[in-house]
Amino acid sequence: MTTFTLIFLLALFATTATQLWLSIRQVRHVRGHRSTVPSAFADKVALAEHQKAADYTVAKQRFGWIESAVGIVILLAWTLGGGLSWIDQLWRSVGYSDLLTGTAVIVSVMLISSAIDIPASLYRTFVLEAHFGFNQSTPAVFVTDMLKGVLLGLLIGVPVVMLILWLMESAGQWWWLYAWLAMTLFTLLLSWAFPKFIAPLFNKFKPLEQGEMLQRIEALLQRSGFNSQGVFVMDGSRRSSHGNAYFTGFGKSKRIVFFDTLLKQLTPPQVEAVLAHELGHFKHKHIVKGMLLSTGMMLIGFATLAWLMQQPWFYAGLGVEKPSIYMALILFLMVSPAFTFFMTPLMSWVSRRHEFEADAFAVEQTGSAELSSALVGLFKENAGTLTPDPLHSAFHDSHPPAAIRIAHLSQVHQN
User: Fold this and answer.
1) Among the options 88, 129, 272, 278, which is catalytic?
2) Cα–Cα distance for residue pair 363/377, rounded to 1 Å
3) pTM for this structure?
4) Backbone dihedral region for residue 406 (phi beyond 0: left; psi -120 to 50: alpha; all else: beta)
5) Which of 190, 210, 351, 352 has the CA that lies 20 to 30 A from 398?
6) What range does the domain containing 29 cover?
7) What is the tens place of the pLDDT at every residue in 232-283?
8) How far apart are CA 288 and CA 348, in angstroms?
9) Is 63 a domain residue?
10) How many domains, the chain?
11) Is 289 a member of any domain?
């Protein structure tokens, strides 16, 4: 066993043990508060709704234990078990160029990994989500989505993989900077193309009909100085009863999308408050800040990869017999989560801070009462737990817990 093998195994153990410990804390905390609705929500959430949310949270955590165990076995099989080396040898024997061989190896690993994930996706959709009354999908929709996803992934992913491998092979010692620039441009292009060409492949979008809700939204957009290509309703109910809303697109292609399920769950004033929160992200430039943060981390990632691909111990320590640029890329993508997990609380803290700022903007536009009632409604309809474990939440929740968030809304309103 090499030194780096030991370091990798220790990092993987530390990450997995911490995730399991946090998950167990979450289960115990949620179950421990299952019998009583928190006092702040006693007049808004029925005990049966609170208990459903608790049971749903526990079920997801327990299934996550199985997924985590399977994921570790698969990761070790790919690396120390020799799976990557076996696929590499198989494609090398065909006699393609290094660029085509590397692309074939990476695509093969992606397809096999996607196939391995199918049973978990089936269980999550048709057992877990169905048990709690959320699944609206059918086997036909599931299969169609999967096939569309695979084909789209190949159409988009293969050229990107070939470009990155070509830069790694041909662009000299500064390849990582050129690759970072290429990926940054690709991300911007994808943000522009997603609402126009990609999202309609999976869902139907129609303009929000005339009425009180549209009038409120248009007035809010005008007050906020937000320009978009329209307000659309997406047929989210075709797959799930969970409700949501989001911005999509980039530059002049921005558009606002509401799930049809959300519009059925909330009143027009509540929808206006939810949209005001999303506009708060825009006004505070959270989207731009997020993109800058992600591109900065990507730059660090490419620079780290450029160094690692020159180190023989990196390959040997992860079970790869023949070093290559494409194998360095695969290994880096596979094992980096084991080394970066403990950055998760920092990223969650940044995200929660942005949520507080967006909430404050929404209060300025619509007041706190409607947003508070909308949040409670969404927690009920989506079976979000009102009593998460604080430490688990600090690691994993991009949004503040319901009690903290609503208390912050009241404080902002008073100020």
Assistant:
1) 278
2) 17
3) 0.90
4) alpha
5) 190
6) 3-173+324-341
7) 899 988 888 887 887 776 666 677 888 988 888 888 889 889 889 988 888 8
8) 17
9) yes
10) 1
11) no
